[in-house]
Amino acid sequence: MAHTEHLPIYKASYDFCLYVEQLVRKFARYHKYALGQDLRDGARRVLKLIVRANARRDKRAALLEIREEVEALKVLLRLCHDGQAFPNFNAFEHAIRQVTDIARQNEGWLKSQYRGRGQSRPAILDEIAEPSAP
Protein backbone atom coordinates (compact mmCIF):
# COMPACT_ATOMS: atom_id res chain seq x y z
CA MET A 1 0.00 0.00 0.00
CA ALA A 2 1.37 3.38 -0.98
CA HIS A 3 1.83 5.98 1.71
CA THR A 4 0.01 9.23 1.10
CA GLU A 5 0.99 11.37 4.08
CA HIS A 6 3.92 12.90 2.18
CA LEU A 7 1.72 14.27 -0.62
CA PRO A 8 0.89 17.99 -0.40
CA ILE A 9 -2.50 17.33 -2.02
CA TYR A 10 -3.27 14.74 0.64
CA LYS A 11 -2.36 17.20 3.40
CA ALA A 12 -4.48 19.94 1.81
CA SER A 13 -7.45 17.60 1.40
CA TYR A 14 -7.12 16.28 4.95
CA ASP A 15 -7.01 19.83 6.30
CA PHE A 16 -10.10 20.65 4.25
CA CYS A 17 -11.93 17.64 5.71
CA LEU A 18 -11.12 18.83 9.22
CA TYR A 19 -12.17 22.37 8.39
CA VAL A 20 -15.48 21.19 6.95
CA GLU A 21 -16.19 19.13 10.08
CA GLN A 22 -15.67 22.21 12.26
CA LEU A 23 -17.58 24.45 9.87
CA VAL A 24 -20.67 22.27 9.57
CA ARG A 25 -21.01 22.26 13.35
CA LYS A 26 -21.70 26.00 13.09
CA PHE A 27 -24.37 25.61 10.41
CA ALA A 28 -27.98 26.15 11.39
CA ARG A 29 -29.98 22.96 11.74
CA TYR A 30 -31.76 23.77 8.49
CA HIS A 31 -28.46 23.53 6.55
CA LYS A 32 -26.52 21.11 8.73
CA TYR A 33 -28.28 17.91 7.69
CA ALA A 34 -28.56 18.59 3.96
CA LEU A 35 -25.89 20.91 2.62
CA GLY A 36 -23.56 20.22 5.52
CA GLN A 37 -23.76 16.46 5.05
CA ASP A 38 -23.13 16.83 1.31
CA LEU A 39 -20.07 18.97 2.03
CA ARG A 40 -18.70 16.47 4.53
CA ASP A 41 -19.29 13.54 2.17
CA GLY A 42 -17.71 15.34 -0.78
CA ALA A 43 -14.62 16.30 1.19
CA ARG A 44 -14.16 12.71 2.33
CA ARG A 45 -14.67 11.38 -1.22
CA VAL A 46 -11.88 13.64 -2.50
CA LEU A 47 -9.57 12.40 0.26
CA LYS A 48 -10.38 8.76 -0.56
CA LEU A 49 -9.80 9.35 -4.26
CA ILE A 50 -6.40 10.86 -3.52
CA VAL A 51 -5.44 7.75 -1.58
CA ARG A 52 -6.75 5.59 -4.45
CA ALA A 53 -4.86 7.58 -7.09
CA ASN A 54 -1.62 7.33 -5.16
CA ALA A 55 -1.98 3.55 -4.83
CA ARG A 56 -2.50 2.93 -8.55
CA ARG A 57 0.05 2.67 -11.29
CA ASP A 58 -2.19 4.44 -13.79
CA LYS A 59 -3.47 7.40 -11.81
CA ARG A 60 -5.26 9.25 -14.60
CA ALA A 61 -8.76 7.82 -14.08
CA ALA A 62 -8.72 8.54 -10.35
CA LEU A 63 -7.29 12.02 -10.92
CA LEU A 64 -10.08 12.78 -13.37
CA GLU A 65 -12.59 11.62 -10.73
CA ILE A 66 -10.93 13.96 -8.24
CA ARG A 67 -11.36 16.79 -10.73
CA GLU A 68 -15.10 16.09 -10.95
CA GLU A 69 -15.53 15.85 -7.18
CA VAL A 70 -13.62 19.08 -6.61
CA GLU A 71 -15.79 20.90 -9.14
CA ALA A 72 -18.88 19.54 -7.40
CA LEU A 73 -17.48 20.80 -4.08
CA LYS A 74 -16.99 24.27 -5.57
CA VAL A 75 -20.62 24.36 -6.67
CA LEU A 76 -21.76 23.12 -3.28
CA LEU A 77 -19.69 25.74 -1.47
CA ARG A 78 -21.21 28.43 -3.65
CA LEU A 79 -24.69 27.08 -2.91
CA CYS A 80 -23.93 27.15 0.82
CA HIS A 81 -22.72 30.74 0.51
CA ASP A 82 -25.74 31.88 -1.47
CA GLY A 83 -28.07 30.02 0.91
CA GLN A 84 -26.39 31.75 3.87
CA ALA A 85 -25.27 28.53 5.51
CA PHE A 86 -21.83 29.90 6.37
CA PRO A 87 -21.54 31.82 9.64
CA ASN A 88 -19.60 34.59 7.84
CA PHE A 89 -17.92 35.42 4.55
CA ASN A 90 -14.46 34.55 5.89
CA ALA A 91 -15.54 30.95 6.42
CA PHE A 92 -16.66 30.71 2.80
CA GLU A 93 -13.52 32.41 1.55
CA HIS A 94 -11.25 30.05 3.48
CA ALA A 95 -13.15 26.98 2.26
CA ILE A 96 -13.12 28.03 -1.39
CA ARG A 97 -9.39 28.82 -1.22
CA GLN A 98 -8.69 25.36 0.17
CA VAL A 99 -10.72 23.66 -2.55
CA THR A 100 -9.08 25.78 -5.25
CA ASP A 101 -5.67 24.78 -3.90
CA ILE A 102 -6.64 21.10 -4.05
CA ALA A 103 -7.88 21.57 -7.62
CA ARG A 104 -4.64 23.26 -8.65
CA GLN A 105 -2.53 20.48 -7.15
CA ASN A 106 -4.70 17.85 -8.81
CA GLU A 107 -4.26 19.49 -12.20
CA GLY A 108 -0.50 19.53 -11.72
CA TRP A 109 -0.51 15.86 -10.74
CA LEU A 110 -2.68 15.03 -13.74
CA LYS A 111 -0.41 16.90 -16.14
CA SER A 112 2.65 15.17 -14.69
CA GLN A 113 1.05 11.80 -15.45
CA TYR A 114 0.76 12.70 -19.12
CA ARG A 115 4.22 14.23 -19.32
CA GLY A 116 5.65 11.05 -17.85
CA ARG A 117 4.21 9.12 -20.79
CA GLY A 118 5.89 11.38 -23.34
CA GLN A 119 2.68 12.99 -24.55
CA SER A 120 2.60 16.59 -25.67
CA ARG A 121 0.36 19.22 -24.12
CA PRO A 122 -2.22 19.34 -26.98
CA ALA A 123 -2.72 15.58 -26.67
CA ILE A 124 -3.40 16.05 -22.97
CA LEU A 125 -6.06 18.63 -23.63
CA ASP A 126 -7.71 16.55 -26.36
CA GLU A 127 -7.85 13.41 -24.26
CA ILE A 128 -9.13 15.15 -21.13
CA ALA A 129 -11.67 17.31 -22.95
CA GLU A 130 -13.16 14.53 -25.07
CA PRO A 131 -13.06 11.10 -23.41
CA SER A 132 -13.25 8.21 -25.81
CA ALA A 133 -16.47 6.25 -26.09
CA PRO A 134 -16.47 2.78 -24.52
Please provide a written account of the structure.
By secondary structure, this protein is mainly α. It has one domain: de novo design (two linked rop proteins) (Up-down Bundle). It is 76% helix and 0% strand. It is built from six helices and no strands. It has helices at 8-25, 29-32, 35-55, 60-82, 89-115, 121-129. The mean pLDDT is 87.
**Poorly predicted spans:** none
Number of H- or I-type helical stretches: 6
Kindly identify the CATH topology. de novo design (two linked rop proteins)
Largest sheet: number of strands, sense, barrel closure: none
- Estimate nothing, just give the exact number of structural domains: 1
- Sheet-strand content, in percent, reads under 5%
Q: Helix content range of the residues, please?
A: over 70%
The backbone outline, from C-alpha atoms, is elongated
Query: CATH superfamily membership, which one?
Result: 23S rRNA-intervening sequence
Radius of gyration: 16 Å
How many DSSP E strands? 0
For the record, the CATH class is Mainly Alpha
What value does the average pLDDT take? 87
Indicate the CATH architecture: Up-down Bundle
Q: How do the SSEs run, as a string of H and E? A: HHHHHH
Which structural category do the helix and sheet elements fall into?
Answer: mainly alpha
Distance N to C terminus: 30 Å
